[in-house]
Design brief:
Blueprint: H1 3-8, E1 11-12, H2 20-26, E2 33-38, H3 45-49, E3 72-77, E4 95-96, H4 101-106, E5 109-121, E6 127-137, E7 150-157, H5 161-169, E8 176-181, H6 199-206, H7 208-211, E9 216-219, E10 224-225, E11 228-229, E12 238-244, E13 251-255, E14 266-270, E15 273-277
Parallel strand pairs: 2-3, 2-8, 3-7, 8-9
Antiparallel strand pairs: 1-5, 4-5, 5-6, 6-7, 9-13, 10-11, 12-13, 14-15
């Protein structure tokens, strides 16, 4: 199955509503690469980190940009029933107070959600909500966005991660370029009998002939063992970026061998000024 078949398999949940966001996806010639955030809740930190000239050399798809040969689409999902209608209409068109607000303040950034959403049913258990979010930042030097900010197209599915992976991503051969394993376990409402830090990477690796080899994994403390991924299937990944105060800190970025990543000195705020911190291989 391919990208065009995937688009044909989507059915509007509400008939006679605007479909302009889906039309933007329809401009892609083939399936986009994905930044997948399983168990995302309402967390938009991947948008915060998607600055111009970021170390990965790639950016998430923005509504005002022409699709690249292989755009990267941001896809969130969570099985928490309270998020079934996320983002609800009370949030749309307004500034948003995101989780990890201190991290947003550190990078002098803010986010607001677009004024509409489109909901499409894929099958009896999976829906896909399309909406937009605009991110602005300041005082980031080479990483400054334009004055009007960046507006992103986002997919959100209120369902189990395994289900989304096995019924959508693998059959339609979406390449998972980035995966974030953040704030799982403990009080995160992770479902019983499923360890997202271990079981999900192992399953993704089992089906890499369908979804490709993941380029980057961002994993927080409880998915690490001695500063390396705890999942046996990720032992060949290298610690290349971070740490970040995200999820259960510190979160670290791991890349597959040979992947492009230009480490850089990271800004650190002191009072109202910024200073550069030398990057270190380990924290």
């Amino acid at each position: 199955m391919d990208w065009k078949n995937f688009l044909k398999d989507l059915r509007p949940e509400i008939i006679n509503r605007e479909t302009s966001l889906l039309e933007k996806l329809s401009r892609f010639e083939s399936a986009p690469d994905l930044f997948w955030y399983p168990g995302s809740g309402k967390d938009f930190v991947p948008l915060l980190l998607d600055v111009p000239h970021n170390p990965t050399g790639r950016r998430l798809y923005r509504t005002d940009s022409e699709p690249e040969e292989k755009p990267v689409l941001f896809w969130m999902n969570d099985h928490d029933r309270s998020l079934k209608d996320f983002p609800d209409y009370g949030l749309l068109g307004k500034s948003f107070s995101p989780p990890y607000e201190e991290l947003w303040k550190t990078y002098d950034a803010e986010i607001s959600l677009g004024s509409r959403k489109e909901i499409y049913r894929f099958n009896k258990d999976i829906t896909i909500t399309l909406f937009s979010a605009k991110v602005k930042n300041r005082n980031q030097g080479a990483h400054d966005r334009s004055e009007s900010g960046d507006e992103y197209l986002i997919c959100f599915s209120p369902c189990d991660s395994e289900q989304l992976f096995e019924e959508v991503f693998a059959p339609y051969r979406f390449h998972l370029a980035f995966v974030a394993l953040i704030a799982q376990g403990g009080f995160s409402k992770q479902r019983s009998g499923f360890n997202q830090y271990i079981d999900l990477p192992n399953r993704v690796t089992d089906l890499k002939n369908y979804v490709g080899a993941v380029d980057f994994w961002c994993i927080d403390l409880y998915g690490q063992k001695r500063e390396m991924p705890a999942a046996p299937s990720l032992q060949e990944y290298e610690y290349i970026g971070g740490p970040l105060p995200w999820g259960w800190p510190p979160s670290r970025l791991y890349g597959r061998a040979g992947i492009q990543y230009s480490r850089e000195r990271r800004p650190h705020r002191v009072g109202n000024s910024w200073r550069n911190l030398g990057s270190r291989r380990r924290c």
